[in-house]
Design goal:
The protein has 4 helices and 4 strands. By secondary structure, it is α+β, with helices and mostly antiparallel strands. A 4-stranded antiparallel sheet has the order 2-3-1-4, with helices on one face. A hairpin with a 4-residue loop joins β2 (50-54) and β3 (59-64). It starts with a helix and ends with a helix. 14% of the residues are buried.
Length: 119
């Protein structure tokens, strides 16, 4: 692995984080089944990494690879009989757990081994 290859891997990992968190205020959800209806409507309309709804909070949170089309989102949820009261979006960063840490350490060690033991 060359110096440029290693740098490319690290830069790519840093640039891959264009994820978005969209929070939708939804009126009319009364139970877990209502949450399921809204979640299913979102999944049918968009390719999302995660969608969760809470009838007690009156909101749906969507994690996706990029921003979602707000007009299309409002249409999809409204079609299920619930009213969209507001939509906010913000950048989302995946939680860094133990496996993410181990992956970075292994890349670093691979880089060190490659250059310490050249032929």
């Amino acid at each position: 692995m060359t110096d440029n290859t290693f740098n490319s891997i690290v830069i790519t990992e840093m640039e891959d984080n264009n994820m978005s968190k969209t929070t939708v205020k939804v009126d009319g959800m009364m139970c877990g089944m209502c949450e399921s209806h809204v979640n299913d409507a979102v999944r049918r309309a968009f390719q999302v990494d995660k969608v969760t709804s809470s009838h007690s909070k009156g909101e749906t949170v969507i994690i996706s690879d990029g921003p979602v089309d707000e007009a299309k989102l409002k249409t999809a949820i409204s079609a299920t009989g619930y009213e969209v009261k507001g939509i906010t979006s913000e950048p989302y960063e995946k939680k860094k757990g133990l496996f993410s840490f181990l992956h970075k350490i292994s890349l670093h060690l691979l880089y060190q081994v490659k250059f310490c033991y050249k032929d």
